[in-house]
């Protein structure tokens, strides 16, 4: 075979081989096509991360001021004025039953005072039980306690919070009158309402 003819045949074979390899590369590239881009609607529908709201995470009790548990000076003045209008409850000799005149004395301004006291859980009052000089020390301490309890129960039924009413008996140790007659003794057989001092260290009454 002449050299010229052989050269042409080799050229044709090389051209066919190159063309075949090019088609195969195109097929491989087509099968590895990148994913289609997301549409505008799909992007808008994607959830966005919500910004951190530090105020919402704070405890509710830190966001709102706590209600006062003890009255301010102005309210204390109102309380003292109301208490001064409530007369002492007086008792018969050797008795701790509340008399009608004592009920009337306790009811005077008592409902208004009870409404104020309920608003301040740290405000407390003491009911003092007193007796006249007759009888033993031990007996009068028990009688004074019974008189104070009788008034406490009466005030609770009138709307006072029981937890804010305390009792103490002084028996015959703190007489209001020191004369030795029935008129003076009647003044000593009594129950007296006083406000307790505030404990400034713990903001509670004592």
CATH class category name of the largest domain: Alpha Beta
**CATH-defined superfamily of the largest domain:** OmpA-like domain
Q: Summarize the biggest pleated sheet.
A: 4 strands, mixed
Please tally the helical runs, counting DSSP H or I stretches of 4 or more residues: 9
What structural class do you assign from the helix and strand content?
Answer: alpha+beta
Strand content: 5-15%
Which fold name is given in CATH as the topology of the largest domain?
60s Ribosomal Protein L30, Chain: A
Q: What is the string of helix and strand elements?
A: HHHHHEHHEHEHEEE
What does it look like?
With 206 residues, the chain is an alpha+beta fold. It has 2 domains: 1-33; 73-205, OmpA-like domain (60s Ribosomal Protein L30, Chain: A), CATH 3.30.1330.60. The chain is built from 9 helices and 6 strands. It has helices spanning 3-31, 40-45, 54-57, 60-63, 73-85, 100-107, 110-118, 137-157, 182-188; strands at 89-90, 125-130, 165-171, 190-195, 198-199, 204-205. The chain has a 4-stranded mixed beta sheet. Strand 5 (198-199) and strand 6 form a beta hairpin. Helix 5 (73-85) packs antiparallel against helix 7 (110-118). The longest helix has 29 residues, at 3-31. Residues 23-31 and 200-206 have low confidence and may be disordered.
Features:
206 residues; alpha+beta; 60s Ribosomal Protein L30, Chain: A; 9 helices; disordered C terminus
